[in-house]
Amino acid sequence: MVDARGLSCPMPVIMTQKAMKSKEDYYEVMVDAQAPLENVTRFAKSQGYNVEVEDKGGEYLLKISR
Amino acid sequence: MPHMAFFAKISNVKWRIKMEKKNDKLMIIIAGLVIGVIAAGLAFLGNPKNMGFCIACFLRDTAGGLGLHKAPPVQYIRPEIIGIVIGAFVAAFAKKEFGSKGGSAPMTRFVLGFFAMVGCLMFLGCPFRMILRLAGGDMNALLGLVGFVIGIFCGIFFLKNGYSLKRTYSLTAGEGYWMPILEVVIFVLLIARPAFIAFSEEGPGSMHAAVILSLAAGLVVGVLAQRTRLCMVGGMRDLVLFKETRLLWGFIAILVAALITNLALGGFKLGFAEQPIAHTDGLWNCLGMLLVGFACVLLGGCPLRQLVMSGEGNADSAVTVLGLMVGAAFCHNFGLASSGEGPTPAGKIAVIIGIIVVALIGVVNTYVKEKAPAKEAA
Hints:
The complex is a heterodimer of chains A (66) and B (378).
Chain A: E1 2-3, H1 11-19, E2 26-31, H2 34-46, E3 50-55, E4 60-65
Chain B: H1 4-10, E1 14-15, H2 21-44, H3 55-65, H4 79-94, E2 101-102, H5 106-123, H6 127-135, H7 140-160, E3 169-170, H8 178-192, H9 211-228, H10 232-242, H11 246-265, H12 282-299, H13 303-311, H14 315-333, H15 345-367
Antiparallel strand pairs in B: 2-3
Helix pairs in contact in B: 2-9, 2-11, 3-14, 4-8, 4-9, 4-13, 5-12, 5-14, 5-15, 6-7, 6-11, 7-10, 7-12, 7-15, 10-11, 12-15, 13-14
């Protein structure tokens, strides 16, 4: 679980990238703004993952899997 | 992860992001093309040559108009700036993205903004104007671009090693409105023109498109930049860090559209010598933009992006914009800003100091960790 709430880009993507080095099949990333939501999603998709987003009222839980 | 059940309970409708990668890229390319045409076009409607838009120059002019510095040729309240902030505010508000946020190292951001401006005024333009200068055939901007890329790499070095200005937090509801309100007040001053507001009678500050055109151009650019997250440093940065080209396409689209517009309207003049509001000192063009690229990567966005985020309610970006404006005032009060003649000795010293300070900010926020056990560390 990567908690990237409150962090501005590119930090959330860098954190996701670092986490993904363990090459697991499932990650969760928490963000609280639209730009990181889009950027992490874009990055995860570029790495061959699927992304599901849960809206938790201003915060978003990204479920990244492959 | 342990809280799954909890999350599942409170979660409302699950939804998939429908952003298709191609659409995404197409959006920013179209936005970039529109912005490029508008920016080049403004220079034909009265703005200084190759300066349809320049966030650094326009914040500097605005600072001068408000009397924060007394350099007679560069004083005018630029409606483009007002338009960008209000445009971004409206777009963010409409999409429910507006929110009062801040608290991520405000003074550090102020200082980074200050020195980013020192670099901009050494080169004579922000990254946005650097593109427009390239599109006008100003080859001096090519050396600026070289420095800009080197500066971005300097910033990326720290990003890769864990640089962070830490988290932002939700602030009181009113906090995010200050910047849009401030712009409205400045707009009133522009229209009312009371005696204490100074407008240039000659020089770049006296050259401007009609207020309504400048404002409209700013509004369109503000909306497009907010929706696409357009950023001039982000393109190169994301390419290096993540092999992500989306933002870079925005950069390229602006360049292409402005170039074509300039060629069509006769605003293209290839070469180094006698370019409008530019000097030919290659080394200092390069070092100036190095400072800008470096500072902007550590800030998380170029001056345009900071302006847009200040309209989205981000108080940290608002403080950064104030840092840019104060930096501009200092540059002209202390004779740090270059002119068409070239850089000043004091300006060179300021750029060197700036590069050192920005590097120290990088070191401190990468390698010096707080002693208290950081609870928030994920």
